[in-house]
Amino acid sequence: MLKSFRVDNFKSLINVTFEPVGLNLLVGPNNAGKTNLCHALRFLSLTAQMSLDDAAAACTAEPWNLLNVYIPKESLSLSATCELTLADELLSFSYELTLASEKGPRAQPRGRPFSVSSEILRLSGGKFADTVLLENRGGQVRLLHEKRFLRRLAPGSEPDYVDTIAPTDTTMLFRLYDLETNQRSNLFKRYLASWGYYNFDPTRLRNNQARAMETILEGSGSTLSSVLSTLHSARPRLEKKLIDAVKLLEPRLDLLSFQTPDPEHVYMFFEDRQGNKFGVNNISDGTLRYLAMCYLVLVGDDGVAERGGPPVTIVEEPENGIFVAHLKNLFEKIEPSGRQGQFVFTSHNPYFIDLFDASLQGLFFIKGGETHSTLIKPDPAKLQERLGKFSLGEMHFKGLLE
Predict the structure, then answer these.
(1) Quick one: which of 21, 2, 4 has its CA closest to 334?
(2) Which residue ranges form the domains of the chain, and what is each CATH number?
(3) Alpha-helical segments (H) within 259-361
(4) Over the stretch 146-195, which tens digit does the pLDDT of each residue have?
(5) Does 389 score more than 70 pLDDT?
(6) I need a surface site. Which of 87, 231, 295, 400 has the fewest CB within 10 A?
(7) How many angstroms separate the CA atoms of 226 and 264, rounded?
(8) pLDDT digits (tens, 9 = 90+) for 41-87
(9) β pairing state of 140-144 and 161-165
């Protein structure tokens, strides 16, 4: 479970620390920095999956503006602490990553190339006490041989490390081989890479491209038909649970059916009890967005044990095109402790914000400034007192959350 995330010099975020709980909501005016915080979380996750420049390009349409343009600093820092489980043993990880960027607005067509300045992963728990698992200083790398450490380490002795050299255009975490010698480092890597960012696009939700046994919902929703086709074949009971939830918006829905004319395409249809079929082009944007949200909340994936902890799921403005009362029913199914997954939402909608009346610990206000954003965590006790006079949405409207 993610305990804290810190980012410095990412767009409008200067030395910002975010400490999420199970269910979290980011509110604030337009252009305050809510999406920037979501993108910073996404960027750190992507650095465990691809090169730094590819991560920057995947994270933003303008990778040359990834750094704060108002502060003359050519480095970007991100860090995260989390608790994961391996073989029923609770482990605490701490990861710090500092990237250097070449000067100039556009050092290459794709943006400003990044390189690893420093990277360090530490572990506590079991026989590990703030033990360095991985250290990367500008390409000079040392990796802990975990099996040797556990087998040979005696009080006062030095851990066994393997020294190597690595290119600085990716993190060493990304380059790790999945070996028993780095079992815990790879556990953290899988967890970090599992974080999901979603900003559903109605056009992309109607996409019919498919891959065999697809289970990962892509950020824009473009794999919705593909993942639901897999669900239909592999987990019919969960599909029924999903259909029952979507009936709140589309009461005529009786089942989902699919046509796969070739291995690369799948066409999804809604069917009523009379067998009438309706393709996704005849389904409203809001219903498709709600269907995607139901998949995230009710289905997710089965990789919790493999990752060692529940995923982090980030969703931008989930209420778009959806009657908020329907989201209330769906959100009541989210485990607020985060044991089944941590959720981070952004919103401006006062009625959606009202859904967090019982989750005040996860409310965060982002305030924009001339050069940078400020993340504010309102006092839950004060908010609880004000709830007798105003709803949470009214407090946001009246500026009472700062």
Answers:
(1) 21
(2) 47-194 (no CATH), 201-343 (3.40.50)
(3) 285-294, 304-307, 324-331, 350-353
(4) 988 888 766 556 678 999 999 999 999 999 998 889 999 999 999 999 99
(5) yes
(6) 87
(7) 10
(8) 999 999 999 999 999 999 888 888 899 989 889 999 999 999 999 98
(9) antiparallel
Quick check: 302 pLDDT over 60? no
Are 368 and 31 a contacting pair, CB within 8 Å? yes
The residue among 117, 122, 114 whose CA lies nearest residue 53 is 114
Residue identified by tokens 């709803």 is 391
> DSSP 3-state assignment of 17?
strand
**CA 175 to each of CA 48, 243, 274: distance values in angstroms, whole numbers, following the listed order:** 8, 40, 54
Nearest-angstrom CA–CA distance, 249 and 326: 7
| Contact (Cβ atoms closer than 8 angstroms) between residue 332 and residue 345 | no
Side-chain half-sphere CA neighbours of 182 within 13 A: 24
CA nearest neighbour of 114 among 164, 157, 50, 70? 50
Quick one: which of 287, 289, 286, 278 has its CA closest to 256? 278
Sign of CA dihedral 396, 317, 332, 188: negative
Say what the pLDDT of residue 401 is. 85
**If you average pLDDT over residues 309-320, what whole number do you get?**
92
Question: 3-state DSSP call for residue 195?
Answer: coil
